[in-house]
C-alpha cells in the first residue's frame, strides 16, 4: 500500500510563492481542515501564536487527485540548485509535432514570467528548443516541457 504524501517548499514568502504555484499548477488555496470555517479558526484552536499565522501557505488540486503542497517560511535563503524539481508537462510530449508543442510551452512560460517567474535557459538539443528551465519568484528551478 502506498503512503499519503504531500510536498513542502521552504521559502521566505509563503503566500506569494503559493500564489505563483497555484497559477503554474492549476491548484487553489487549500481549504481549512474539516470542522473549521477558516485557517485562523484552526490556528487559534491549535494554539499557534498569532505572529506565526503568516508562516505557511497551503495549496491543493481542486479535483482532489494530486498531492497538496505546503509553503513554509524559513529564515535562510536558497543557496544551491534544487535536488528535486517540478516538470510542468504542458506541450503534449515529444510525440507532438514541434509546431504544436512549442507554442503551448511558450504560452505557459509567458504566463509564468508575468507571474514573477524567470527563464533560466532553453534546452536546445540539435538546435531545436525542447524545454525551458525556469525559476519561481524565490529561485526554485523547474522545467516547462
Q: Which features characterize this protein?
A:
145 residues; alpha/beta; Signal recognition particle alu RNA binding heterodimer, srp9/1; 4-stranded mixed sheet; elongated
What's the architecture of the largest domain, going by CATH? 2-Layer Sandwich
| Tally of individual domains | 2
Global mean pLDDT:
94
Would you count the extended β strands for me? 8
Put simply, the count of helices is 3
Task: Report the end-to-end length measured between terminal Cα atoms.
Answer: 31 Å
Rg value: 17 Å
Topology pattern, helix = H, strand = E: EHEHEEEHEEE
For the largest beta sheet, what order do the strands appear in spatially?
A: 1-4-3-2
- Structural class estimated from helices and strands: alpha/beta
Helix content: 10-25%
% residues in beta strands: 15-25%
Outline the biggest β-sheet. Answer: 4 strands, mixed
Question: Shape, please?
Answer: elongated
Give a description of the structure:
- The protein is of the alpha/beta class and 145 residues long.
- The chain has two domains: 7-73, Signal recognition particle alu RNA binding heterodimer, srp9/1; 86-144, no CATH class.
- Helices cover 25% and strands 24% of the residues.
- The protein has helices at residues 14-25, 39-45, 98-114, and strands spanning 7-11, 28-29, 56-60, 69-73, 86-88, 118-123, 131-135, 141-144.
- The strands form two sheets. A four-stranded mixed beta sheet has the order 1-4-3-2, covered by helices on one side. A four-stranded mixed beta sheet has the order 5-8-7-6, with helices on one face.
- β6 and β7 form a beta hairpin.
- The longest helix has 17 residues, at 98-114.
- The radius of gyration is 17 Å and the shape is elongated.
